Amino acid sequence: MIEKINQTAQFIRSRVSGTIPETAIILGTGLGALVDHIDDKTYISYTEIPNFPVSTVEGHSGNLIFGRLGQTPVLAMQGRFHYYEGYDMKQVTFPVRVFKALGIKRLFVSNAAGGMNREFQVGDIMVITDHINLFPENPLRGRNYNELGPRFPAMTEAYSKQLCEAAFRYAEANGLRLMKGVYVGTPGPTFETPAEYEYFRIIGGDAVGMSTVPEVIVANHAGMEVFGVSVITDLGGKDITEVPTHEEVQLAAQAAQPRMMQLIKALVALR
Ligand code: HPA
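Output (structure tokens, whole complex):
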């Protein structure tokens, strides 16, 4: 595993001139066009990268992109690997291991999610303050490599409090409607039944999606600072009868892109 991580990191380094950024951004469903805001881009297709799985789902292009977001050098992941595609947890989180090997210190993750919180509207942006892991397997199951992180990592502050607070300060100063909440990570690929949305709300969830939690666990294991944000693309609950579709999720996420970008751009510029 360590050898594979290093081999991949070395390949990526050989393809990028200049210094490697300290900030990486994983672009979720419908948010891949955020790369349009990145300047001086260098693309590396996942298909070229040794040991990288290849993304299969519609709406995920599959590129690593080096460039600048405003003044800040960033590494963006356009398209992620989902557990529901059939990848195992080590594959899903492999890019995060590689990021760490490259020297990335801060991970920004974005996703599309269904909202259970009754205050939420479609199109809202939710800062993830915490998560509930409902995947059937933890990405850290199995042998622990002490050089990668501790056997029993704390998840007390899986999402940087400092970055969450900065997000709300920015939102307030700029009149941006910004929600916050707990993200429930499920394996998918089914959307929830009305009873499941209700159950997730009762156990403390505000939004539910099929990604993010594995990457965030590994990023924390690796000692990275994490900021997570969801676009609420549909609403679910026991009295909600609208049927969510992948197309609707993509459209709602695309509509939120400018606001999402504005926020991420402001946050990456800190420090
Ligand atoms: N459930 C799970 N994943 C999702 C949803 C949802 O309602 N919307 C977008 N991703």
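The mean pLDDT is 93.
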